[in-house]
Amino acid sequence: MNCELCGKETSHTVTVNIENSEIEVCEACKSYGKEVFSKGKSDSSQKQILQRIRSKKRTSSKTGLDEADKKELALDYSERIERARIENDFTQEELAKKINEKKSVIAKLERSDMRPSDDLRKKLEKTLDIELMEKIESTPTKKTEGSDGLTIGDLIEDG
Ligand SMILES: [Zn+2]
Q1: Which runs of consecutive H residues, i.e. helices, occur in the chain?
Q2: Domains located in the chain, CATH noted
Q3: Region of poorest pLDDT, from 6-15, 73-82, 95-104, 145-154
Q4: When comparing pLDDT for 158 and 27, which is higher?
Q5: Are strands 34-35 and 71-73 parallel, antiparallel or unpaired?
Q6: Percent of the chain with pLDDT over 90
Q7: Distance of CA 7 from the midpoint of ligand 1 (Å)
Q8: 109 CA to middle of ligand 1, Å?
Q9: What's the pLDDT tens digit per position in 95-117?
Q10: Ligand 1 centre distance from Cα of residue 131 (Å)
Q11: Which residues contact 136 (CB under 8 A, 6 or more apart)?
Q12: Could you say which DSSP state residue 74 is in?
């Protein structure tokens, strides 16, 4: 380190204020200015901020739903429920009691006013011995009507 005033090499410098500018000087030169006491630089606060940021690492949770066998509620679920209920000789109230639901729930289901929850559907299926789910059919690929034997050559006529 060199004294900023006299340029002498020194191991110890003192910060002094000379004419409104802070310079580092040697012990010999410090009398030329007013000694400035460092305000204690602290970079610890910066480290704390960094640590806080690091600890905030979010744990991203991916919800990978793999449905190998896709099924969905049958479109005619209401009819299936009603039919099965009648076949079993249950009133709506009786069926409701069997699955611990209100009669209005059965009525709504049979009017297609309500889609049963998974839980409710399972109870109905078990009690009535029916299947309310259907496999989703992949859209059937239409067979392209083959114009057999006809080639491009046949379509082009020589004038
Ligand atoms: Zn000096």
Answers
A1: 44-55, 77-87, 92-98, 103-110, 118-128, 152-155
A2: 1-38 (no CATH), 71-135 (1.10.260.40)
A3: 145-154
A4: 27
A5: unpaired
A6: 53
A7: 6
A8: 96
A9: 999 999 999 999 999 999 999 99
A10: 97
A11: 70, 71, 72
A12: -
Q: How far is CA 85 from the centre of its chain?
A: 41
Neighbours of 122 (CB within 10 A): 14
Question: What would the two tokens of residue 52 be?
Answer: 């806080």
Which two tokens mark 31? 């009398």
**Separation of 19 CA from ligand 1 center, angstroms?**
16
Q: How far is CA 101 from CA 9, 47, 118, 124, in A?
A: 93, 60, 14, 10
Distance 37 CA to ligand 1 centre (A): 18
Residue range 55-67, pLDDT digits in tens: 765 554 455 444 4
Q: Quote the ligand 1 centre to 88 CA distance (angstroms).
A: 109
